[in-house]
Design a protein that fits this description.
The chain has 331 residues and is of the alpha/beta class. The chain has 14 helices and five strands. The chain folds into two domains: 115 residues, Rossmann fold; 173 residues, Hypothetical protein af1432 (Orthogonal Bundle). It has a five-stranded parallel sheet, with helices on both faces.
Amino acid sequence: MATRTSVQPPAKILIIEDDADLIGIMQDILEGDGHKVISAHSGPTALRLFEQEIPDLILSDIMIPDMDGFAVLEAVRAHPLGKVVPFLFVTARTERRDVGRARDLGADDYIAKPFGVDELRKAVRAKLERRRTIELFNTRTAHLQTVTMLANAIEARDKYTRGHVERVRGYALELGNALGWGDEALVFLEVGSLLHDIGKISVPETILNKTGPLVASEWVTMRQHPEVGARMLEGVDHLRSALPYVLYHHERWDGKGYPTGAAGKNIPIEGRLLGAVDAFDAMTTSRPYRNGLSHEAALTEIRRGMGSQFDPEMAEVFLSLMMRKNKSGSR
């Protein structure tokens, strides 16, 4: 199955521990995974470092000098930027009352000493992934509103394809879920599907709204829209993840697509996914010079294009998905 995996980005981790040897061990493990580690031997030092660095994750013992781990946790949670920082206790104190107090104060996890290397890595990975997901979804709504408004403004210029962007978004998210893509990849997919035709802002409305087939010179202009759209997104940090969807959604598996002529798996997986769902919606949408195909006929065309226009594996999953939908919808 075609999956889209993402490597967890390096994080800044604060270790609060008065045992220098244990700090060294934890530091070796976490830095070996690519993370940046800062450490403190006491509570007050830890809070100073927290305010200077604002870590992505805190690992703290309970029994530390001058200020115990519970007090550090309370201070971190009271800080405006500390409410969402994952806080894990790594301690030999495992009595029920200590675990209960840690959770009441907002600790995210509790690792008992002595711990295994895999146990530490697994806990750190899980909490960092959860924080990244929370951050993504906290910003997703605001970004999505802006992106949807922009996509609708572009689409409004083409009176024959109204609703195309929303339909493509729906098909794309269904296919991404069927492929087993994770939350982060699905967020990027949603933005990319909404913005895939943003480059059409450069295409004259006389071409977009032409009632007949385009002539060669008009196709030259139309086929510039993926590159125009990609250039528009290059300088926008929070939209750059949509760039592969914009640039590559008209490429073909056999290399006869545009604008780059990439073939096979040299086409980024984002473009291969969106190419299939975009083509399906185009085939099922009526234009003044042709009627749209039925879903069944369009799926036949998708199957016919496997290995030439479409990634065979991607197309197979899409076909299975749509046939299941059609079957359940006919009951």
